Fold:
Amino acid sequence: MLKIGDLAPNFTLTDKNGKRVSLSDFRGKKVVLYFYPKDNTPGCTRQACAFAGAYAEFQNRGVEVIGISKDSVASHVKFAEKYQLPFVLLSDPDRVAIEAYGVWQEKKMCGKVSFGVVRTTFLIDEAGAITDIMPRVKPDTNAQEILERL
Structure:
């Protein structure tokens, strides 16, 4: 399990534009790395729109925002276009980053047990170290909570 002070695991995934992106590309900048279950679902849409609404403030503070889910690049393209999401969305269908960050977990809903992505946000500093971990975040308040912590 990752903890504050650990070096954030590097990964290389494909973004919504089909470009390969590595976490190490953002060294020298603070990064908000958030994992979410699925494009175009109510909670994930609210969370993404909250990040989009606060994106200018993140940029003013020199902070990059990266969202990761198992969804395909094509799904991310539609999601980003529909909601005008200006930040990086990465596709992780093989769960490379999802498992490296420990967010693929057992979930229970309506008495049914399954595995999936647990909505979690990591703050990463300029040197690539994890400075904060926010498990099971609320989609509506996650972006604002991060701005308050910065």
Summary: The mean pLDDT is 94. The two ends are 23 Å apart (CA to CA). Helices lie at 42-60, 73-83, 96-100, 142-149. The beta strands are 12-15, 20-22, 30-35, 63-69, 88-91, 104-109, 112-117, 120-124, 130-135.
